[in-house]
Structure formats: structure tokens, C-alpha cells
Specification:
Bound molecules: ribulose-1,5-diphosphate
Distance between the termini: 58 Å
Oligomer: single chain
Number of helices: 18
Helix content: 25-40%
Strand content: 15-25%
Radius of gyration: 23 Å
């Protein structure tokens, strides 16, 4: 049988799923790359009598480039399920057993591109960034939101009160946090109804706002729960994509009965995105969320907020907004340790097509939630108008208080 190494051959993005891995190993890189290509396609740790040339040539993965610790492996499109949009099987190929190979100290999936025949199996966002903007009547300015804090503990009435105050302070978005779904202290039905009333009240006062209700639950119940919260008045649904699975986002997005956007939280991603030498980078996950129909997705704070991250997160932004795939764009959400003083920095990196949200950076304002929301809105207004925040704060006292309290970085 031939080798899995095809170094120097052109990368063929029309016929292959092309993956970029970063590999740490004591083996010669060619051997390590071959081990990955073999394990993830037609081989295993030893030669096998059942593998013939026809199978090897048509389905074997091909290592087409090795540069330093980075390797490019392409997988024939035929290695992937003909079942429409089957992410579990895709992940088993591109991000499966390879992580456990004992001969490798570390492997990280950094990027992936899919050929058209696979992209066409997916539908992408039903609303996307533009749909969310349209629903909010906010065509251009960055969206500005909050995560209701504390993340657990408020009852339905106080959650709705928080949302109302946030909206009356100018926020366009709010959301449940990742650990709140349907607990005794805040049943999802009561919360959804109370929040819907708060949003209706805001709308009757001339302000449009969305709140994402977290429906993250077991696979056989999640679409039903999404349908229920929609009936109870939810204007946006939230899904924790890593804990629920990509199929959960896809099932909700593709269900014709669901007529509201999906906000995708990525809790637990740090378990495999954080180590620069092992795991899966956020970029491939962002691409999969877009394919599966997420309308808004957390992408980190471009190296600025509380969760670790780096300017490499720029590529997540591009994966949300780029025009290289046949889907609507996804609203990138910068979240995690955000407060008014860093909004300018984030927007300078992200551009205006972004949702910036703060939990502690709103609820921690000494003037309360409404004042905190005003400070965040003012920070966005300042950068949108091209006015330095310190200047803007001179006649916007909520922003001035926030800058004084938390500073700029
Ligand atoms: C926000 C918060 C969110 C993070 C998750 O609260 O904790 O769950 O955005 O991070 P706060 P990421 O504004 O008080 O920090 O989006 O990076 O997954």
C-alpha cells in the first residue's frame, strides 16, 4: 500500500475536507502526520489484510503539507456521511481518535474547510446577523446587551425587572446565562412569560429588545422546549452548543415551527480550545455553528475581556461574517468580563457588526442595572460616533461612573 504522504500536491478544496493541525511529538513529523491520516481514515496501528488498494486510494486521507509543527491533511468528501449535515460523523473524522494517539504529545485542530457538496448539506442561519438587526430596528450600530446576573438566583419577576431596566437603559439584547434553564427558583415558563411582558412594555414605550431564553436540555426534548418558549413569547432562544451538541442547534434552526433567532453560547469550550497545543480551536467550531444555523455566537472578546483569548479570535469574527460560505452571516457576540471602559477597544477590533454584552459590567454599576445599561449604551454610542469615551463621559454621568469604577483595562 502507498503512503498517506502526498507532500507538495495541491490542496484540493473542491473534493476534500481540508484540516490544519498543530502537532507536538517526538516522532519525525512525517510519521506523526501519517499516524493521524491513517487513524482518521483507512488505517490503524498495524497493516490490515482487509484494506485493499481501491479503498485506500478512494478513501485514504492525504497529508499534503508539513511546515514546522503544522500539517495539512485532506479527507476525501466520500469519507463523510451522505446523511444531510451529520456533524457527529464529521467531528469523528476530523476531530476524533487522533487526540488520544499515545505517540503524540499534543494535536490541535486549528482550521477546517469543507467542499461545496458538504456545505450544501447545511442550511446556515435562518435569520443571521441581518435578521437580528432587522427585528431590533438597528441597522448599523453595534448591538449592546447584558447577561442577567446573578447567573442563577433571580425569580421570574426579578429577571423580568432586570430585563426591563436594561432595556430602558438602552440595551438591545439580554439573555439567560448558561446555567439557567428550568430551575425551581425560576421556572422557564414563568420566566419566559414575565420577560415577554417586559419586552412588550419596552416596545410600547418605543424600544425594541430581544432576550434569549436558554432551552439547553436533553436531545429528545430540546425542539419541543424551544417551541414551548416561543409560544410563551420568547423572541430569541439560547442553546449551549457544546453541552447540547451541534445537532441541537441544527434541529431547532431547521424546524419550520421555530420563527425566532438562536443565540449560541459555548460554555465548556475552554476544555478544548484553551490549550494552544492540544484540542480544537474555536475557528472550526464557529464554522460548524454557522453551518448548523446559529444566528448569534460567542466568539470571545478579541483579547480584551475576562475569559482567556487572543487576537487570533479575529478569525472567529471572519468565520461569522465572511462571504466564503453560502449562508447568512452570524452575529458575533463579544462577552465575558466586558465593561464600558473596554467597549471602545473591542469595537476598534471588531468593527460595528458585533453584539457586545456585559453581565457584571451592567449589574455591578453602583447606580443599578438601568444606570449600568446606560453606561454600556453610552460607551457604544461614543465609539460609534467616533468620540473618545473620556470625552463622551464628560456629559454622560453613567459612563463617567463606570470609567471611574472599572477603568479602561
Ligand atoms: C458573562 C459570562 C458569559 C461569558 C462566557 O458574564 O459569564 O457566560 O460570556 O464567555 P460577565 P465566552 O459579563 O459578568 O463576565 O463567551 O467567552 O464563552
Amino acid at each position: 500500500m502507498d503512503s498517506y504522504l502526498h507532500l507538495g500536491e495541491p490542496v484540493d478544496q473542491d473534493k476534500y475536507v481540508v484540516c490544519k493541525y498543530r502537532v507536538t511529538t517526538d516522532l519525525p513529523m512525517e510519521k506523526a502526520a501519517e499516524a493521524i491520516a491513517a487513524e482518521q481514515s483507512t488505517g490503524t496501528w498495524t497493516g490490515i489484510s482487509t484494506l485493499n488498494t481501491e479503498i485506500f486510494n478512494s478513501l485514504g486521507a492525504r497529508v499534503v503539507d508539513i511546515s514546522g509543527d503544522q500539517i495539512i491533511v485532506e479527507f476525501p468528501a466520500e469519507d463523510f456521511s451522505i446523511e444531510v449535515g451529520a456533524v457527529p460523523q464529521i467531528l469523528s473524522v476530523i476531530a476524533g481518535n487522533l487526540f488520544g494517539l499515545g505517540a503524540l504529545k499534543g494535536v490541535r485542530l486549528e482550521d477546517v474547510t469543507f467542499p461545496k457538496e458538504i456545505l450544501d448539506q447545511f442550511k446556515g442561519p435562518k435569520f443571521g446577523a441581518d435578521g437580528i438587526r432587522k427585528a431590533l430596528d438597528r441597522p448599523e450600530k453595534p448591538l449592546v446587551g447584558t447577561i442577567v446576573k446573578p447567573k442563577i438566583g433571580l425569580d421570574a419577576k426579578n429577571t423580568a425587572k432586570y430585563v426591563y431596566e436594561a432595556g430602558s437603559g438602552g440595551l438591545t439584547n439580554s439573555k439567560d446565562d448558561e446555567t439557567l434553564v428550568d430551575q425551581k427558583f425560576c421556572p422557564i415558563e414563568d420566566r419566559t412569560i414575565a420577560v415577554a411582558e417586559a419586552l412588550d412594555r419596552l416596545e410600547s414605550e418605543g424600544h425594541k429588545m430581544m432576550h434569549a431564553i436558554n432551552v439547553s436540555t436533553r436531545g429528545d426534548k430540546i425542539v419541543e422546549l424551544a417551541e414551548k418558549v416561543q409560544e410563551w413569547g420568547a423572541r430569541e432562544i439560547m442553546v449551549d452548543v457544546i453541552t447540547c451538541g451541534f445537532g441541537a442547534v441544527q434541529a431547532i434552526a431547521e424546524d419550520p415551527s421555530i420563527k425566532v433567532p438562536i443565540h449560541v453560547h459555548r460554555t465548556m469550550h475552554g476544555a478544548f480550545t484553551k490549550d494552544p497545543l492540544h484540542g480544537v480551536a474555536m475557528l472550526p467550531l464557529t464554522k460548524l455553528v454557522r453551518m448548523c444555523g446559529g444566528d448569534a455566537l460567542h466568539i470571545g472578546t478579541l483579547g480584551v475581556g475576562k475569559m482567556s483569548g487572543s487576537t487570533k479570535e479575529d478569525s472567529n469574527l471572519t468565520a461569522c461574517l465572511g462571504s466564503d460560505v453560502p449562508y447568512r452571516t452570524v452575529m458575533p457576540v463579544c462577552s465575558g468580563g466586558v465593561y464600558p471602559g473596554i467597549v471602545e477597544d473591542i469595537v476598534k477590533k471588531s468593527g460595528f457588526n458585533v453584539q457586545i454584552q456585559a453581565g457584571g459590567g451592567v449589574a455591578g454599576h453602583p447606580g443599578g442595572v438601568r444606570a449600568g445599561a446606560m453606561a454600556m449604551s453610552q460607551a457604544v454610542d461614543a465609539v460609534y460616533a467616533g468620540i473618545p469615551k473620556e470625552e463622551y463621559a464628560k456629559d454622560h454621568k453613567e459612563l463617567a461612573t463606570a470609567l471611574e469604577m472599572w477603568g479602561s483595562k
